[in-house]
User: Fold this.
Amino acid sequence: MRRGILWNTNRPGQDLKDVLPLISWTFFIISIPAAIILFFVSDGFSFEFTQGIWLNLFYTVYLTILPVLWGGYIIGKRIINVRVVKLNHKRLSVFDMFIREFIGKFVLGYVSLGLTALISACMVAFLKDRRAIHDFLAGTYVERGH
Assistant:
């Protein structure tokens, strides 16, 4: 196994323990404040804004640009100290992240009606190198911070 991969197959039972902080930080730091703001701005809870393409496009741009500017990190990855890295350890480019996020996640997700997300989850769970479809397309992987 390559050193620096997010999950270590030599530590059985540790995968869930490593992922839970990401889930909890994302929920408490991003989801709850966003829900409170949306509650007051929209006079109640409504999920209509999530049904359109604009939120998805905004989120994809965020996931594409921020890692290029911030050394492979986005806010959630920075909190738990993991980042996206090129296989050849060169600096991430906008093109790399465009392929990873827009083509590998956004476009394939819409075209496959979400099937690629399920396949990617299985790849991360069962493959030795823990890379998903979007990682293979862009030549990237996720590693613990340096």
Notes: Residues 72 and 87 are 12 Å apart (CA to CA). The beta strands are 82-86, 140-144. Residues 1-9 have pLDDT under 50 and may be disordered. DSSP finds six helices and two strands in the chain.
